[in-house]
Amino acid sequence: LVVVISVLSQMGFGGSRVAVSLYALELGASQFTVGVIVALYSLCPMFFSIAIGRVSDRVPARFPMILGSVMMAAALLLPLASQGIVLLCVSALLLGSGHLVFSIPLEAGVGGIGGPQYRARNYALITMGWSIANFLGPLITGFSIDTIGHQRVFWVLSAFVALPILMLWWWPRLLP
Question: pTM of the full predicted structure?
Protein backbone atom coordinates (compact mmCIF):
# COMPACT_ATOMS: atom_id res chain seq x y z
CA LEU A 1 0.00 0.00 0.00
CA VAL A 2 2.88 2.37 0.67
CA VAL A 3 4.16 1.80 -2.86
CA VAL A 4 0.66 2.41 -4.26
CA ILE A 5 0.42 5.67 -2.32
CA SER A 6 3.78 6.82 -3.59
CA VAL A 7 2.96 5.83 -7.17
CA LEU A 8 -0.34 7.72 -7.14
CA SER A 9 1.29 10.82 -5.73
CA GLN A 10 4.18 10.68 -8.18
CA MET A 11 1.81 10.13 -11.12
CA GLY A 12 -0.06 13.29 -10.24
CA PHE A 13 3.13 15.25 -9.67
CA GLY A 14 4.91 14.00 -12.79
CA GLY A 15 1.84 14.47 -14.93
CA SER A 16 1.42 17.99 -13.61
CA ARG A 17 4.73 19.08 -15.12
CA VAL A 18 3.45 18.12 -18.55
CA ALA A 19 -0.04 19.54 -17.96
CA VAL A 20 1.19 22.86 -16.60
CA SER A 21 3.76 23.27 -19.39
CA LEU A 22 1.34 22.46 -22.20
CA TYR A 23 -1.43 24.55 -20.65
CA ALA A 24 0.93 27.53 -20.36
CA LEU A 25 1.78 27.18 -24.05
CA GLU A 26 -1.94 26.91 -24.85
CA LEU A 27 -2.48 30.19 -22.97
CA GLY A 28 0.18 31.87 -25.12
CA ALA A 29 3.17 31.78 -22.78
CA SER A 30 6.63 32.02 -24.31
CA GLN A 31 9.11 29.16 -24.05
CA PHE A 32 11.07 31.21 -21.50
CA THR A 33 7.95 31.64 -19.37
CA VAL A 34 7.31 27.90 -19.49
CA GLY A 35 10.90 27.35 -18.37
CA VAL A 36 10.37 29.72 -15.45
CA ILE A 37 7.14 27.93 -14.47
CA VAL A 38 8.86 24.54 -14.49
CA ALA A 39 11.77 25.98 -12.50
CA LEU A 40 9.30 27.17 -9.85
CA TYR A 41 8.60 23.52 -9.00
CA SER A 42 12.07 23.42 -7.43
CA LEU A 43 12.25 26.86 -5.84
CA CYS A 44 10.68 26.05 -2.45
CA PRO A 45 12.33 22.62 -2.17
CA MET A 46 15.69 24.29 -2.79
CA PHE A 47 15.22 26.54 0.25
CA PHE A 48 13.11 24.44 2.62
CA SER A 49 14.13 20.79 2.21
CA ILE A 50 16.36 20.70 5.30
CA ALA A 51 13.73 22.39 7.47
CA ILE A 52 11.01 20.04 6.25
CA GLY A 53 13.31 17.09 6.88
CA ARG A 54 13.84 18.21 10.47
CA VAL A 55 10.12 18.61 11.06
CA SER A 56 9.46 15.23 9.45
CA ASP A 57 11.86 13.60 11.91
CA ARG A 58 9.78 14.87 14.83
CA VAL A 59 6.25 13.93 13.74
CA PRO A 60 4.68 10.72 12.43
CA ALA A 61 5.18 10.41 8.66
CA ARG A 62 1.44 10.21 8.05
CA PHE A 63 0.70 13.85 8.96
CA PRO A 64 3.13 15.61 6.61
CA MET A 65 2.27 13.13 3.86
CA ILE A 66 -1.41 14.06 4.15
CA LEU A 67 -0.48 17.75 4.22
CA GLY A 68 1.73 17.36 1.13
CA SER A 69 -1.06 15.55 -0.72
CA VAL A 70 -3.56 18.26 0.22
CA MET A 71 -1.13 20.91 -1.02
CA MET A 72 -0.67 19.10 -4.34
CA ALA A 73 -4.42 18.52 -4.79
CA ALA A 74 -5.16 22.18 -4.09
CA ALA A 75 -2.40 23.26 -6.47
CA LEU A 76 -3.83 21.07 -9.21
CA LEU A 77 -7.26 22.61 -8.75
CA LEU A 78 -5.95 26.18 -9.05
CA PRO A 79 -5.82 26.19 -12.88
CA LEU A 80 -9.51 25.31 -12.85
CA ALA A 81 -10.35 28.49 -10.92
CA SER A 82 -9.24 30.82 -13.69
CA GLN A 83 -7.11 30.86 -16.80
CA GLY A 84 -3.82 32.60 -16.33
CA ILE A 85 -0.08 32.27 -16.21
CA VAL A 86 0.11 33.66 -12.66
CA LEU A 87 -2.07 30.83 -11.35
CA LEU A 88 0.14 28.32 -13.12
CA CYS A 89 3.16 29.86 -11.37
CA VAL A 90 1.47 29.61 -7.97
CA SER A 91 0.39 26.07 -8.81
CA ALA A 92 3.97 25.09 -9.68
CA LEU A 93 5.27 26.55 -6.40
CA LEU A 94 2.65 24.68 -4.39
CA LEU A 95 3.17 21.44 -6.32
CA GLY A 96 6.91 21.47 -5.70
CA SER A 97 6.40 22.28 -2.02
CA GLY A 98 3.66 19.69 -1.56
CA HIS A 99 5.71 17.02 -3.26
CA LEU A 100 8.61 17.75 -0.93
CA VAL A 101 6.37 17.69 2.16
CA PHE A 102 4.99 14.33 0.97
CA SER A 103 8.24 12.70 -0.18
CA ILE A 104 10.64 13.37 2.69
CA PRO A 105 8.54 11.65 5.39
CA LEU A 106 7.62 8.89 2.93
CA GLU A 107 11.27 8.06 2.41
CA ALA A 108 11.95 8.16 6.14
CA GLY A 109 8.91 5.97 6.84
CA VAL A 110 9.79 3.46 4.17
CA GLY A 111 13.22 3.02 5.72
CA GLY A 112 11.64 1.89 8.98
CA ILE A 113 9.15 -0.65 7.66
CA GLY A 114 10.11 -4.17 8.68
CA GLY A 115 13.40 -3.20 10.31
CA PRO A 116 16.91 -2.61 8.97
CA GLN A 117 17.07 -5.91 7.09
CA TYR A 118 14.30 -4.73 4.72
CA ARG A 119 15.51 -1.15 4.22
CA ALA A 120 17.28 -1.74 0.88
CA ARG A 121 14.34 -3.76 -0.47
CA ASN A 122 11.86 -1.10 0.61
CA TYR A 123 13.80 1.68 -1.08
CA ALA A 124 14.12 -0.44 -4.22
CA LEU A 125 10.35 -0.99 -4.30
CA ILE A 126 9.62 2.72 -3.84
CA THR A 127 12.14 3.62 -6.54
CA MET A 128 10.62 1.13 -8.98
CA GLY A 129 7.19 2.53 -8.16
CA TRP A 130 8.38 6.07 -8.88
CA SER A 131 9.82 4.90 -12.21
CA ILE A 132 6.49 3.41 -13.18
CA ALA A 133 4.70 6.57 -12.04
CA ASN A 134 7.10 8.81 -13.97
CA PHE A 135 6.19 6.83 -17.08
CA LEU A 136 2.42 6.63 -16.49
CA GLY A 137 1.81 10.17 -15.17
CA PRO A 138 2.97 12.06 -18.29
CA LEU A 139 1.50 9.38 -20.57
CA ILE A 140 -1.94 9.61 -18.97
CA THR A 141 -1.68 13.40 -18.93
CA GLY A 142 -0.95 13.61 -22.65
CA PHE A 143 -3.75 11.19 -23.47
CA SER A 144 -6.15 13.07 -21.19
CA ILE A 145 -5.30 16.44 -22.74
CA ASP A 146 -6.03 14.99 -26.18
CA THR A 147 -9.36 13.51 -25.08
CA ILE A 148 -10.80 15.86 -22.42
CA GLY A 149 -8.78 19.08 -22.78
CA HIS A 150 -6.17 21.11 -20.98
CA GLN A 151 -8.24 22.26 -18.03
CA ARG A 152 -10.05 19.01 -17.31
CA VAL A 153 -6.78 17.10 -17.05
CA PHE A 154 -6.22 18.86 -13.73
CA TRP A 155 -9.23 16.99 -12.31
CA VAL A 156 -7.62 13.70 -13.29
CA LEU A 157 -4.27 14.63 -11.76
CA SER A 158 -5.85 15.95 -8.57
CA ALA A 159 -7.64 12.61 -8.17
CA PHE A 160 -4.28 10.83 -8.28
CA VAL A 161 -2.87 12.92 -5.44
CA ALA A 162 -6.14 12.91 -3.46
CA LEU A 163 -6.31 9.12 -3.22
CA PRO A 164 -3.25 8.95 -0.91
CA ILE A 165 -5.05 11.34 1.48
CA LEU A 166 -7.91 8.87 1.81
CA MET A 167 -5.60 5.87 2.12
CA LEU A 168 -3.46 7.50 4.81
CA TRP A 169 -6.57 8.64 6.64
CA TRP A 170 -8.21 5.20 6.68
CA TRP A 171 -5.03 3.22 7.46
CA PRO A 172 -3.25 5.29 10.10
CA ARG A 173 -0.83 2.47 10.97
CA LEU A 174 0.34 2.06 7.40
CA LEU A 175 3.65 3.74 8.19
CA PRO A 176 5.71 3.25 11.36
Answer: 0.90
